[in-house]
């Protein structure tokens, strides 16, 4: 943040130089483009390294700001009228909201062609249809992790629900994945895009299935899960994952592909989640994914050029080359990219599931929902985890249904700004 404030101050100073001739002000060097994104630690370092090597021949430089509190940071910057030039977000609901408010700039033609359908739709804004974001990478979510040699017939589940301002999302991932594999893509898409009631039997069944899978937890265990990060406890080398965290007597973890960065050893295995969730056989090769999408917030034409380069095969290849295997970015369609030698069996397995096994990829449902409904979903998961009684569930689902209906009514005059109705597609778009 200190670096970013310095850049903002520099921009103010340079603007003053245009009005007043101040000694030492004159410079032909443009300000660095500011990129705001969700990656920190090794992920952030890899992305920043790739960013610095995206030489366009003009000498333009880039500054990356990574934060785990992405929405809060971006909202505060927009309120201060100091937005980043480019931001990378994982929420289609938020991006739709920013487009509706006129905060996003339509993408240039070369980038629009790479917009992975249906997750980057054309939106009707001021009478014109345009594409406003492009996916840069994805993470496979329908995964279960365990230690090699651990029987999988009767798993004891690791659960860590804490995550700063967005605590609860590991629980929403559970419910989304269960609904997808039990009910299939059609009910999932309708629910994700607010066209299916939260009181629908398929939705209720997903919640009760989650409670059944986690049944038998003690009060101490529940409190531990509510207050422990999804990364597990920290050791000398950083987060060590829930499977390796002291005090967690568990054998299996339901978590996205990104968590592999805390499991660096060869004693961890990963497998599709479908068989653990009580789903139907026809949904076995359907997977939930999360995506990170780049959007342009400034009028600087170089910001458009940057997004075009980041989303290109060359940009992907450079990003992948700069990253350690544990944080190497994943893509839903690797056409145009040379094959990569996977560093371990875990990466090989995930890449194979994403690009060979997967028949259908469905975008993370809560990330499609309007922000107010998504946030309420996060809170409801935390409350349900603490008290999974049927009466409590009925009350929580009615609250979520009330919010869904209200958001739907408020959007009556702006339906063209809604997220796409189709959020599932084959790996090639």
UniProtKB/TrEMBL annotation:
The keyword Signal applies. Residues 223-232 have a biased composition (Polar residues). Residues 222-245, 409-429 are annotated as: Disordered. SUPFAM superfamilies: Periplasmic binding protein-like II. Keywords: Signal. Residues 1-26 form the signal peptide. It comes from the Bacteria. This is Alpha-glucoside ABC transporter substrate-binding protein. It comes from Streptomyces dioscori. The lineage of its organism: Bacteria, Bacillati, Actinomycetota, Actinomycetes, Kitasatosporales.
């Amino acid at each position: 943040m200190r670096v970013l404030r310095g850049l903002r101050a520099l921009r103010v100073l340079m603007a003053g130089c245009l009005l007043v001739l101040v000694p030492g002000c004159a410079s032909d060097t443009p300000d660095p483009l500011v990129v705001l994104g969700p990656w920190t630690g090794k992920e952030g370092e890899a992305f920043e390294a790739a960013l610095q090597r995206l030489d366009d021949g003009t000498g333009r430089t880039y500054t990356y700001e990574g934060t785990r509190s992405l929405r809060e940071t971006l909202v505060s910057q927009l309120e201060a009228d100091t937005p980043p030039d480019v931001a990378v977000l994982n929420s289609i609901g938020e991006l739709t909201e920013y487009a509706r408010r006129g905060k996003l700039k339509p993408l240039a033609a070369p980038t629009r062609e790479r917009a992975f359908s249906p997750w980057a739709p054309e939106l009707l804004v001021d009478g014109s249809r345009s594409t406003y974001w492009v996916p840069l990478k994805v993470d496979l979510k329908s995964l279960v992790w365990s230690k090699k040699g651990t029987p999988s017939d009767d798993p004891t589940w690791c659960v860590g629900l804490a995550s700063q301002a967005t605590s609860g999302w590991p629980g929403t991932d559970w419910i989304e994945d269960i609904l997808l594999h039990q009910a299939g893509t059609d009910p999932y898409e309708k629910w994700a895009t607010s066209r299916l009631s939260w009181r629908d039997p398929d939705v209720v069944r997903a919640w009760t299935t989650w409670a059944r899978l986690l049944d038998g937890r003690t009060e101490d265990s529940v409190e531990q899960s509510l207050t422990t990060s999804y990364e597990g406890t920290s050791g000398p080398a950083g987060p060590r994952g829930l499977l390796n965290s002291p005090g967690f007597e568990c054998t299996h973890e339901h978590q996205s592909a990104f968590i592999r960065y805390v499991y660096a050893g060869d004693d961890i295995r990963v497998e599709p989640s479908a068989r653990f969730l009580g789903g139907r056989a026809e949904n076995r090769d359907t997977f939930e994914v999360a995506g990170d999408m780049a959007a342009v917030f400034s009028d600087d034409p170089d910001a458009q050029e940057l997004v075009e380069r980041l989303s290109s095969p060359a940009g992907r290849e450079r990003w992948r080359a700069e990253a350690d295997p544990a944080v190497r970015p994943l893509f839903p369609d690797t056409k145009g990219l040379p094959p990569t030698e996977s560093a371990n069996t875990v990466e090989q397995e995930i890449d194979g599931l994403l690009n060979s096994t997967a028949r259908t990829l469905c975008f993370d449902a809560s990330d499609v929902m309007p922000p107010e409904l998504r946030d309420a979903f996060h809170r409801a998961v935390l409350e349900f985890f603490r008290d999974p009684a049927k009466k409590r569930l009925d009350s929580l689902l009615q609250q979520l249904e009330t919010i869904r209906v209200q958001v739907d009514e408020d959007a009556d005059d702006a339906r063209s700004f809604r997220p796409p109705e189709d959020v599932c597609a084959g790996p090639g778009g």
